Structures are given as C-alpha cells and as structure tokens.
What does this fold into?
Amino acid sequence: MKIAAADIGGTAIKYGLYSQDGTCLKFAESPTDTKNGGAALIRQVGDLLESLGGAQRIGISTAGQVDPKTGTILFATDTIPGYTGTPVKRLLEERFQIPAAVENDVNSAALGEAHFGAARAYPDFLCLTYGTGIGGAIIRGGEIEYGATFSAGEFGHLITHAGGKPCTCASRGCYEQYASTRALCALVKEKTEKSLNGREIFHIIEDNDIVAQCVAQWKEEIVQGLASLVHIFNPACIVLAGGIMNQPGLVESLEAQLKEWIMPNYRGVRLMRSSLGSRAGTLGAVYRAATLECQGSEKARF
Ligand SMILES: [Zn+2]
It folds into this structure.
C-alpha cells in the first residue's frame, strides 16, 4: 500500500509518498498558504498530494488540536487564521475518494518515532518537542494517550514557576516560558543584547561566559520539568525533538543532569534524540493512515 502524507505547519507543508513500511519514495516541502482560510489550505494540500501520484490512502499531520475520529480541527491558533472547524478528513476523502487519517502534529511526530524512529524498542514513552514553545505527547502501547478531549501531553504548560512569566495559554510560569528554544534566545538577548538563534548560541558558547551561563540555566529549566514528568509517568524513555536537540552532547548531558534530580528507582530512564528529523510528522501520518480501520480493506499490522 502507498500512502501520501502531509505535515501541515504554520510556515511550511512537508509532504511525501511512502510505502506502508515507512520507505520514503518522494519528499518535498512548500510554503503554507495561511491567507485564505482552512478550506483553501486543504485545497493546497490536496494539490500537493495529487502531484505525488498514486496513493491508496492519505495521512495528515497538522498544527492545531484535532479530533482524530472525525479528522476535524477543534482549535487552531492565529498562526493559521480560519483553520478552526475545518473538516480536513471529509474534504480530502470527498476529493480523492480514498480513506484519510488526520492527527495533531506533535502526536504524529511521536507516532513516527514510536514505529519508525528512535523509540521503536519502547511501547511506552514520552515525547517533547522544543522550539517556539514545547509540545508533548504520551505514547502507551505504541498509541497516543489522548485524554478526555484529545489534548493530553501539553507539557509546555506544566507550571514550573508559580506566579512567573505570563504565557500564551493565559496562565503564568509555564515550562515553555523557561525551557523552550525561544526562552533560551530571549535569555541570551536579555543578558547580552544579542539576537541569536539556537545554533548561533551554541556556536559561541565556548568563547562567551555569559552565553555559557544562559545555556546552563536553560538546561536546568529543561531538567526540572523533565524530573516532574519522570516522577509522574515513570517512563523507560523520553524522546527529545526540535532542532536544538541536535547540538552534539546536549541530550547526553541533560540525561546525566536529570538523574541528579530524580529518585533512585527512576534513574533507568533514557533520554533519546529524535531520529526522524523533519520527516517525523509525515511518518506518524503514514502509520496513522496504514492502521486506519475502514470498510472493505485490511488494517495494516505493525
Ligand atoms: Zn502556558
């Protein structure tokens, strides 16, 4: 079975044609049309998928909160105006007349890592993505733990500083205000008046003590949030995703620090870097589409 998959983000759509075992046959990227509302965006996605040629199923990984049963966007921020309420699954199935599966992008990346990536040996694990904010997903038995309203795993809004910095969620002191890549960049800006991205920060860390101190403080913030999660979930493994985690030695150093913050019985936990990079979302969508139960066709086994 061939699956056409797309990963819809606020700035780019990544899309590819895969076989159901995760082999990538074609892969490309295109800027997201965010100006004309949800239906126009899904028309654009449909055009990109059509360009890939013969697929039997469609898998979509997308920004926003998703009802995975109906494949509708429950809520999307203003990154994609007019996306809330878009019936993504229905629009694509009506156009292509083949089954389509829709999943939130953070969940999808975690499913990708679970079935094709870093965490293949772990049926139960947590996945956190560090970037502008911090996304999270909980995997149990190789599947997403959704929670009552499909929103479990919002680790970025774990409150780690009571009464602290205001957050986009309207609360204060959330983990992502201290431990995201954006938070690191803001801290470096505050201390040095330099506007640097994550890669640039790590590039000058050896020659700049103030920047090194900022990174050390940021790492403590990361570890303290992870310590709470380890004590709640007692996971065997946590996958850390987001470009910043590719810095050499960072994940290993975070793992060593984490073990100082957790009780002895929890210290077997492994921290792992995401292994699928920019393809994690589409690969999770491939898994979701391959395992979709639909009339008249077999559900793929993994
Ligand atoms: Zn928050």
About this structure: Residues 157, 167, 169, 171, 174 surround zinc ion (CB under 6 Å).
